[in-house]
Design brief:
Oligomer: single chain
Mean pLDDT: 81
Largest sheet: 2 strands, antiparallel
Number of strands: 2
Order of helices and strands: HEEHH
Low-confidence stretches: 1-19
Distance between the termini: 68 Å
Radius of gyration: 22 Å
Number of helices: 3
Helix content: 40-55%
Structural class: mainly alpha
Shape: elongated
Strand content: under 5%
Length: 108
């Protein structure tokens, strides 16, 4: 196959490509991947939410109203997940600290 093959031809399927742009060779994708591709730079993403975040950060000046809304929704969702992760990580550290402190006080 040549470098000009589309992503569907790389995957070995007869289905049409997700976009008319070929995915750049610098991205190492599994053969069964079905990425969403940025219209501006051609970068592939596993999920549409990740694409919305990419567009809002890297191509903010080229967004229309619906893309900006999608970015804001994805950003808020990501913030919630990060906040929850931080709380869980803090809880795990506190538990580990006091667990080791109690273990040390019992066996020392």
């Amino acid at each position: 196959m040549t470098d000009t093959d589309t992503s569907s031809e790389r995957a070995g399927t007869d289905a049409p490509a997700a976009t008319d742009r070929a995915i750049p060779d610098e991205y190492d994708l599994p053969s069964d991947a079905d990425p969403v591709v940025c219209d501006h730079c051609g970068a592939p993403f596993a999920e549409a939410e990740l694409l919305a975040l990419h567009r809002g950060i890297d191509h903010a000046d080229a967004l229309d109203a619906s893309e900006r809304d999608a970015f804001e929704d994805a950003y808020e969702s990501e913030e919630e997940r990060l906040r929850l992760f931080r709380l869980k990580a803090l809880g795990a550290l506190v538990f580990l600290y006091f667990g080791l402190l109690i273990t040390y006080s019992v066996f020392a």
